[in-house]
Amino acid sequence: MPTDARFPDPKDETASARYQANVKSIVITYLLWFFLGWLALHRFYLGRWVSGLIMLLMWAAGSGLAFILIGYFLLIPWAVWWFLDLFLIPGMVRAENNAVVDRIERGY
Fold this sequence. Notes:
Helices cover 72% and strands 0% of the residues.
């Protein structure tokens, strides 16, 4: 996975417009993480459906079972994961935006 952000050729206006229409914002991602992270919406926004669904199910099951204390075995790892996403978000946004460039270059 490349570590540097890539952009379409600025001379190609169509590619640039498609990129701007599909690019993911790090600010929006952090806002989703902070305010709606318990729903894992930041992961869904970045196209990470499987991990988003797992995170959402961990939160739902943990919250539902917290009254009998078993739920905390799901909520504690969920909270650690949520916190680690604070540091993982820049790389996830960069990877998704690079994937947008790849799709544009392939003509999708």
